[in-house]
């Protein structure tokens, strides 16, 4: 019998409390869920596709369909088309959704093999909760290839994936143009709470091991969908410095100043240096701070405030992340830690509750100390009650309250994240021009061996950096259009002044806005007003805000030419029901 594989994400609705999942912390939105939460109309709304499923489908020979963001009806309809195997990808708090899907398959399609994968696969007693035949833990491509009798070490192909499934800013639908890159999974830093690191055996598994592989993937994606900006989904991208250096060399050589959003730990950022990051085209960087009294090697001995200020001065938007309710936190020190992280002055902060996730060292420590509360897994989302007994704070209302208040405080003190981002990008463009002039006057040139600017006997025009600066100008021109709505909807005097100051900065550095830019700013105020009213009504109904639902997308990968994107596009069973153009705010 011909094998047909369905790779499915869990069904929606998402971020809505029902029999299968919670509302809090469970929207399919990273930003609104856990970064710009409490920022109301200023919160960019983006939902990301279930990327690993596309990576898997692209790299196996079995005919495969990816079912992303299905409703329950979509899932049943797709199953009825006949599949020999169904893979369900889920995270721990969605375990009851996976259970419903698997039980339905067992009942109505008993001959179908059920494969479970994703972070939910770390649940220790999964067999008794979700019926299944196979469990894929860790890196899935090689696992699936082996399972279907294919060569696990055959070359990997990177799929072409647009950025968010949807994007709204101040209520206006965006026209995102970015794409996603997944050059590797896991992280060797092995922080004891980190599910990503433990899921992959506390090691890093490269999918695109060389800078050349990444550069090729970027060029390929650019040729197919025109993207020049990429979100690199790699937990610690700069941890492989040789690869990043090679990527820069190739971009330099080919005159392609791609732009990247990356995740990296402080110690490697420090090692690579800000000049390298600017040259590489890092627009935004996600850095784990965790706590002022950090016990993690990645931040030990580093002046984070200075590091972040330097990054921001050079136009790199900084997104910090931190955890509340670590063991040393009591009512006093948790507040001090929140103030400390806010005081680092980053553009965005992710706050999460310290959570022992199955499979991690922290989980084992808590289990052996008898501190696991064994709540139902649906509550392991890091935004509510702690999963462990805490040494000092065990009022579960406080667990949710401290977290929510941390977001509110960041918003009140720092203003909207998008406003900070605009300020960083605009001043970064100015600094890049200034630095360029300085280097020209002083005969400095980039030394790719030393990874820094050095005096040169034969300085030439730095054409690559000129192109990079033009790219930075475009980013600054785009982002300035949010300044008017940021001013109009500013939450307090502080934020209003910051918006006005940034508008002046933009005028000084970029010149007066064009008519088109003014018009778009006014449109954003209009759409923002509608969104603001929607949020208000939502709050009157006792909710935190408006919950958006991504639409279902079904992609079938053709058996013979599945790796040819054009063919893939033609074989879509359903047209994309949402815009396939993505990101760029
Ligand atoms: S550095 Fe980040 S990705 Fe790596 S183990 Fe620590 S928390 Fe996880």
Q: How does this structure look, described?
A:
By secondary structure, the chain is an alpha/beta fold. It has three domains: 4-157 and 553-570, Rossmann fold, CATH 3.40.50; 177-414, pyruvate-formate lyase- activating enzyme, CATH 3.80.30; 419-540, no CATH class. Helix content is 41%, strand content 15%. The strands form five sheets. A six-stranded mixed β-sheet has the order 6-5-4-1-3-19, sandwiched between helices. A six-stranded parallel β-sheet has the order 9-12-13-14-15-16. Strand 17 (444-447) and strand 18 form a beta hairpin. The structure holds iron/sulfur cluster. Iron/sulfur cluster (SF4) binds at residues 187, 189-191, 194, 196-197, 235-236, 265, 288, 298.
Strand and helix layout:
Blueprint: E1 4-9, H1 30-34, E2 45-48, H2 51-58, E3 63-68, H3 72-79, E4 85-89, H4 95-108, E5 113-117, E6 134-135, H5 140-147, E7 164-169, E8 172-173, E9 179-181, E10 184-186, H6 195-199, E11 204-206, H7 211-225, E12 229-232, H8 241-254, E13 259-263, H9 266-272, H10 274-280, E14 282-290, H11 304-313, E15 317-324, H12 331-343, E16 348-353, H13 361-368, H14 396-414, H15 417-441, E17 444-447, E18 452-455, H16 463-479, H17 483-488, H18 493-510, H19 515-540, E19 553-557, H20 565-570
Parallel strand pairs: 1-3, 1-4, 4-5, 5-6, 9-12, 12-13, 13-14, 14-15, 15-16
Antiparallel strand pairs: 2-7, 3-19, 7-8, 10-11, 17-18
Helix pairs in contact: 7-8, 12-14, 15-16, 15-18
